[in-house]
Design brief:
With about 120 residues, the chain is mostly helical. It folds into two domains: about 15-45, no CATH class; about 50-115. It has helices at about 15-30, 30-40, 50-115. The chain is rod-shaped. It starts with 13 loop residues before the first helix and ends with a helix. Keywords: Coiled coil, Membrane, Transmembrane, Transmembrane helix.
Length: about 120
């Protein structure tokens, strides 16, 4: 494992996570019915095979998303930026072509008047 804190990996805000866990624990202590409801909902003995499979797929999707989402988001932003640059260049070429056609039309009109 890379122990370098300046690495490009995602760093977790440990203090905020600990605070969130403490708040959830406090909420369960204040509202014990919520705690028992949550325990009953996540008691896997009562789940069907399909529910277990779907839960596993959801957990895997979340874990994979957490692992690769920063890189995917950066790649998406880079592609979006490149498409924007290509679009701007195409618009600039189109406007330059239209200007050239207008200038040629003006020159051609002058030649017709002079002839």
């Amino acid at each position: 494992m890379n122990a370098n804190p300046s690495s490009d990996r995602l760093s977790l805000p440990w203090i905020e996570i600990a605070l969130g866990v403490a708040l959830v624990a406090l909420g369960f202590q204040l509202f014990p019915a919520a705690w028992w409801t949550m325990l009953r909902a996540f008691d896997l003995r009562n789940w069907t095979w399909g529910a277990r499979f779907l839960g596993t797929v959801i957990v895997l999707f979340v874990l994979v998303s957490i692992k690769w989402s920063p890189g995917l988001w950066d790649d998406y932003q880079e592609r979006k930026k490149q498409r924007s640059e290509v679009r701007q260049k195409a618009e600039q070429l189109k406007s330059a072509r239209e200007r050239k056609q207008r200038i040629e039309g003006i020159k051609e009109g002058r030649w017709r008047r002079l002839s």
